[in-house]
Amino acid sequence: MSFGAPLVLAALVLIPALVVTYVRAQRDRRRAATAFASPAMLASVAPRRPGWRRHAPMAAFALALAVLIVAAAKPQKTVAVPVERAAIMLATDVSGSMEATDVKPSRLVAARRAARNFVHGVPVGVNVGVMAFNGRPRVLQSPTPERADIDDALTRLTPSGGTATGDAITAALKVLRQPTGLRKKIPPSAIVLLSDGASTKGRNPIAAAQEAKRAKIPVYTVALGTPGGTIKVPRTGGQGGTEVRHVPPDPTSLAQIARASGGQAFTADNASELKRVYQKLGSQLGTEKRKRQLTSSFAGGALVLLLVGAGMSLAWFGRLV
User: Fold this and answer.
1) Within this chain, do residues 63 and 94 fall inside the same structural domain, yes or no?
2) Whether the bond into 75 is cis, omega within 30 of 0
C-alpha cells in the first residue's frame, strides 16, 4: 500500500500526545477525588466505578482519529486490471525438432497444452492470436477473444521443416500493428514466441526484435527442450532408413531476441515447467498495474469507530464524551 499525500501521516504524532493528555487528566481526577474523602472512605463515597468502560469510548475515538488521518493521506493499493483490447500473438515453433520426446509426450504436444492453459488464463477481454512457424510463418488465427476459435487453431499445429524465427516475429508484428476499434488505435500488444532451437533461415531475428521494440511490442521468448533431445530423420544420400539427430534448445539466442525487444526470456525443460511459465505470462500479459484509492474505505471505518465510541459513552454514562 502507498499514499498519495504521505506528509499527512505526520499528524499521527497527535495520537500519542492525546493519550498522554488523557492519562494525565485521569490522574488529576483521582487526585481531586482524594481531596474530598480519605482513602478509607472512598469505597463508600463512590462504591461503583466504571473501570475499563471509562476508557473504552476514548480508545475508540483515538483510533477513529488515527484512521481519519490515514484516510486524509490518500491510501492506495496497486492492482492488476485487464487492458482494454490488448492483443497477444502466440507464435509457436513447429519445426521438425518439435517432435522430440525429451519433453513428454513431445515438445509440440506440451507446447499446445501449455498454450491452451495460457489462453484460458489471460483476462476474458484480451484478444489472442495463434501463429505457427517453421521455414515460413502461418497465421492460424488472428487475435480474437473467442477462446473456442483459439483452441481450434492450436489443434492445427503440426511439426515439419526448419526454423525462421525472424520471419515469424515480422509476421506477428504485421498482424498486431493493425488498428482496431472505432478510433483506429493500435492496441497494447505482445508476442509470446516458443521455440526449441536457433533460427536456420529467413530474416535476422535480432533485427526483427529491434523492430518490435520500436513498435513497443515486446517479445517474450520460451526456450523448450533439453540438451539431450533427439529426433529420427531419414538418412541422407539415399541410404534408406533413419538416423538419430540431436536437437538441443538454444536459450541463448532466444534470450537475445527477448532482450532486443524489451521483453523477457524463459526456459522450460519439461511439461510442468512450461505450464508454470505460461501461467506466469498469462497472469502478467493483458493486464496493467493501476493505483486504486482506499480513502473511502478508511473514512468509513473511522465513522464506524466514532459511532461505536459514541454508543458506548451514551449507554454507559449518558453522554457523548
Assistant:
1) no
2) no
Question: Is the full-model pTM beyond 0.90?
Answer: no
Angle between helices 251-261 and 205-214 (to 10 degrees): 30
Q: By residue range, what is the domain housing residue 18?
A: 2-78+292-317
Alpha-carbon span 111 to 36, nearest angstrom: 88
Task: Between 107 and 306, name the one with better pLDDT.
Answer: 107
pLDDT at 112: 92
Please give the tally of structural domains in the chain: 2
How far is Cα of residue 238 from the mean position of the Cα atoms in its chain?
54
DSSP states of 63-76 as a string?
HHHHHHHHHHT-EE
Find, among 139, 155, 125, 124, the residue nearest to 91 by Cα: 139
Instruction: Examine the domain organization and report whether 186 and 264 are in the same domain.
Output: yes
pLDDT on residue 260: 96
Residues 143 and 128: their CA atoms lie apart, in Å, by: 4
305 and 276: one domain? Answer: no
Contact 225, 267 (CB under 8 A): no
